[in-house]
């Protein structure tokens, strides 16, 4: 579209389910920012949760901006 100028950026801000550097990632919290020409920047956090046994699909839920993530993003070791 002519004149459309929108930027969307996302970054991980926390993981759930990893205990002491091991285990399965059960959720990821991401922060997304949207801004463009003529509009102020809007930021939101969402948590993507993996399904449990018997459930289908994934679940997106707004994350509280006051909550501090338990696990900060870091490099994960890969077993060979």
Structural summary, described in words:
The chain has no helices and four strands. It has 80 residues and is mainly β. The chain has a domain at 17-62. Strands 1-2-3-4 form a four-stranded antiparallel sheet, with no helix packed on it. It is elongated, with a radius of gyration of 16 Å. The termini are far apart.
The total count of strands amounts to 4
Q: How much helix, percentage-wise, in residues?
A: under 10%
The helix-and-strand class reads: mainly beta
Give the number of helices. Answer: 0
What is the first-to-last residue Cα distance? 47 Å
> What summary fits the major beta sheet?
4 strands, antiparallel
Walk across the major sheet and give the strand order: 1-2-3-4
Give the quaternary arrangement of the chains.
single chain
Mean pLDDT across all residues, rounded? 75
Low-confidence stretches: 67-80
Briefly say what this structure is.
By secondary structure, the protein is mainly beta.
């Amino acid at each position: 579209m002519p004149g459309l100028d929108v930027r969307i950026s996302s970054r991980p801000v926390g993981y759930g389910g990893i205990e002491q550097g091991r285990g399965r990632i059960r959720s990821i919290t991401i922060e997304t920012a949207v801004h463009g020409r003529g509009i102020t920047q809007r930021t939101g956090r969402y948590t993507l949760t993996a399904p449990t046994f018997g459930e289908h699909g994934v679940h997106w839920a707004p994350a509280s901006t006051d909550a501090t993530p338990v696990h900060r993003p870091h490099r994960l070791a890969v077993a060979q």
